[in-house]
């Protein structure tokens, strides 16, 4: 099934739930109606965001050649694949999105990045940050 068809189905389900809610609350205020619609559309929105985010090439950097991989912000070398990790994000409408993505590892600097392509990594002793304008630093 195409993603557009899944999204259309999710929107139709949300529409049905709003219609059912409205039938049970015929005297609802404008604000109540707005909140009901927002609650249902937030679910559709989250499903769309999750699916689009999972289409990213960075989801599995093992499949990319060295020239396509994110670079270590400290030394500029391509990151190696270092397994996968799940991450939960909360949308602006309080919906949970779960993403599974590659972790990147710089063999030279010996730091992992999750998600890969970011300039911050957790290392023993603190947070590693790489800034092109000054030396690599570790902050606690």
What does this structure look like?
The protein is an alpha+beta fold and 140 residues long. The chain has two domains: 1-53, no CATH class; 59-140, no CATH class. The chain has helices spanning 3-24, 30-53; strands at residues 80-90, 96-106, 111-113, 120-123, 126-129, 137-139. The strands form two sheets. It has a three-stranded antiparallel β-sheet, covered by helices on one side. A three-stranded antiparallel β-sheet has the order 4-5-6, with no helix packed on it. Helix 1 (3-24) packs antiparallel against helix 2. The chain is elongated and about 65 Å long. Mean pLDDT is 83; it is low at 119-140.
Output mean pLDDT.
Answer: 83
Radius of gyration equals 21 Å
Physical arrangement of strands within the biggest beta sheet: 1-2-3
Beta strands, count = 6
Total separate domains: 2
State which percent range the strand residues make up: 25-35%
Helical content (DSSP H or I, runs of 4+):
25-40%
Distance between the termini: 47 Å
Report the biggest beta sheet as strand number plus sense, adding barrel if it closes: 3 strands, antiparallel
